[in-house]
Amino acid sequence: MSDTNSRIAEIVNGNDVVLFMKGTPLFPQCGFSSRAIAILDHLGVDYASVDVLQDMEIRQGIKAFSDWPTIPQLYVKGEFVGGSDIMMEMFEAGELQQLMTEAEVKPAA
Amino acid sequence: MGMAADDIAAMIKAALPDAEVTITDLAGDGDHYAAHVVSAAFAGKSRVAQHQLVYRALGGRMGGELHALQLTTALPT
């Protein structure tokens, strides 16, 4: 468990923007993950993604990591931002773009 | 599988008695819901903390038998 936690912490701290999701950005395996990817693509930011379906430890561990029961989960600069509902609310309010700008996130290559 | 809309609303209200809960069955299949929860308990809390309050009210069902619940939270106006 603590091993999984440190693996997750490493991923979260090693990437400015990282989405834990089901599937990949090209082939999301769940509607909520698909929506999260659409938002990130629309923002045009550079992001990493982790397919939790490929790693059962991370799939379970990520839920405890942020006391958040569902996937996808977005992290920016090591901070948990939210799941797809919060991403959508923040996106519609212009807050997600603002967060990315303030965090000086790189644009997508 | 799945939960009835009334059960979801009842669990949220048990934890947040002042809550106004609106549940929409998105696909008509008793499995994909949207919940809008309005409660004074959300005052001063981040969006993440507001959603965590609701998830806690659902007692671990979120992500399990309730796999597809779109959630929005708001303060009473």
Question: Which short descriptors sum up this protein?
Answer:
heterodimer, A: 109 residues, alpha+beta, Glutaredoxin, four-stranded mixed β-sheet, 4 strands, B: 77 residues, GMP Synthetase, Chain A, domain 3, three-stranded mixed β-sheet, 3 strands, 26% strand, globular
Protein described:
The complex is a heterodimer of chains A (109) and B (77). Chain A is of the alpha+beta class and 109 residues long. Chain A has one domain (2-102): 3-Layer(aba) Sandwich (Glutaredoxin). Chain A is built from 5 helices and 4 strands; from the N terminus they run αβαβαββαα. In chain A, strands 2-1-3-4 form a 4-stranded mixed β-sheet. In chain A, a hairpin with a 2-residue loop joins β3 and β4. In chain A, α1 (2-14) packs across α3 and α2 (31-43) runs parallel beside α4 (84-92). In chain B, α1 (5-15) crosses α2. Chain B has helices at 5-15, 47-57, and strands at 20-25, 32-38, 68-74. The mean pLDDT of chain B is 91. The termini of chain B are far apart. Helices cover 29% and strands 26% of the residues of chain B. With 77 residues, chain B is an alpha+beta fold. Chains A and B meet through β4 and α4 of A and α2 and β3 of B.
> What's the CATH H-level superfamily name of chain B?
BolA-like
Name the shape of chain A in a single word.
globular
CATH architecture of chain A: 3-Layer(aba) Sandwich
Please report the distance between the alpha carbons of the first and last residues of chain B. 36 Å
The largest sheet of chain A is: 4 strands, mixed
Mean pLDDT across all residues of chain A, rounded?
95
Radius of gyration of chain B over all CA atoms, rounded: 12 Å
Tell me the structural class of chain A.
Answer: alpha+beta
List the helices and strands and how they pair.
The complex is a heterodimer of chains A (109) and B (77).
Chain A: H1 2-14, E1 17-21, H2 31-43, E2 48-51, H3 56-65, E3 73-76, E4 79-82, H4 84-92, H5 95-102
Parallel strand pairs in A: 1-2
Antiparallel strand pairs in A: 1-3, 3-4
Helix pairs in contact in A: 1-3, 2-4
Chain B: H1 5-15, E1 20-25, E2 32-38, H2 47-57, E3 68-74
Parallel strand pairs in B: 2-3
Antiparallel strand pairs in B: 1-2
Helix pairs in contact in B: 1-2
